[in-house]
Amino acid sequence: MIKRFFIERCSWIFLVLFLQLLLVFVAYIDPAIPLTPILYIAFLSCLVFIIFVIVRYQKETKFYKSLQDWDPNLDLTTIIHAESPFEQIIEEVLSDQTKQLKKEAAVHFMNLEQEKDDLLSWIHEVKTPLTAMQLIIDRLDNETIKTQLTHEWLRIHLLLDQQLHQKRMPFIENDLHIEKIAIKSIIFAEIKALQSWCLQKGIGFDVDLEKREVLSDSKWLAFIIRQLLTNAIKYSESADILIKTYQQDEYTHLEIQDFGRGIDPKDLPRIFDKGFTSTFQHRDNGATGMGLYLAKKAAQSLFIQIRVTSKPQEGTTFTLIFPKANEFHHISSM
């Protein structure tokens, strides 16, 4: 490596030495210039230059000595004896490493895509026996067992539905169809799907829909409402859930209010974080911390604002604020 270092810097090394020899030669042929002081100056200059070269050698070759630790498969012998300058060697090494990392990233991406497709396929396959189970449960005569099985079936169904939408979330823009939709049909469809759970807990609904149409995507809006309703039902006991729509400042609002255990004030800023579960009852093993996170992500793609107010032991109110038509025009025209 020392030989290579000097070979690549021989031009400016010879230049410095030439300048010193030139200075001594001029002092030798010119009687007006004292030779001894010039020789002393040239000697000090050469000494300083030698120290400088030694220091630069230590600094500039330190990187190449560390390459072996950075990548054990790197052939340092090839680098040391390469015909390229050190700067070009750096570019070649980094370029090779970048290409290798890109190849690995492409392989990982393909594997993740395959895993996602396999999981989506599995979810769709599982829906078939779930449908059969529902038909079997509906034929049961024992109402107690029927209610319990229906509740457990619903839990599995909701978890699979959440997982399905989670995998679709990165590609939600390709799945949107913006149109005017009847909010009443979506709300009542979701309530009907959850009625067995509500009957088990003694929960009813008070629905007041002043505004009956909103501009949104029906499938993803239903998913958002489903997450908010399941959250309200889960943390409520024997109380009505209030659902209403109204117009305020030219925006349509949808409120879902429950009278359950509420949310601790210190938890409010974090309820939409991925994987966050309440610290109020942190040992609640049924919470996944994904429902509100996914609802928030879907709402952002639909330009829907979600606001939440809550008081512990008094209940929680989630408010969906829908965009105006002109704010959604560029998406609805896609």
Automatic annotation (TrEMBL):
Has the keyword Kinase been applied to this entry?
yes
The residue ranges crossing the membrane are 12-29, 35-55
Q: Does the keyword Transport apply?
A: no
Pfam families tied to this protein: HATPase_c
Q: Which Gene3D superfamilies match?
A: Histidine kinase-like ATPase, C-terminal domain
Q: Which UniProt keywords apply?
A: ATP-binding, Cell membrane, Kinase, Membrane, Nucleotide-binding, Phosphoprotein, Transferase, Transmembrane, Transmembrane helix, Two-component regulatory system
Subcellular location field: Cell membrane
Against InterPro entries, the record matches this protein to:
BphY/WalK/GraS-like, HATPase_C_sf, HATPase_dom, His_kinase_dom, HisK_dim/P_dom, Sig_transdc_His_kin-like_C
Residues covered by the Histidine kinase domain = 121-326
Q: How does it sit in the membrane?
A: Multi-pass membrane protein
The catalytic activity, as recorded, is: ATP + protein L-histidine = ADP + protein N-phospho-L-histidine
The protein's Enzyme Commission number: 2.7.13.3
What's the protein name?
A: histidine kinase
Organism, per UniProt? Lederbergia ruris
Organism taxonomic ancestry: Bacteria, Bacillati, Bacillota, Bacilli, Bacillales
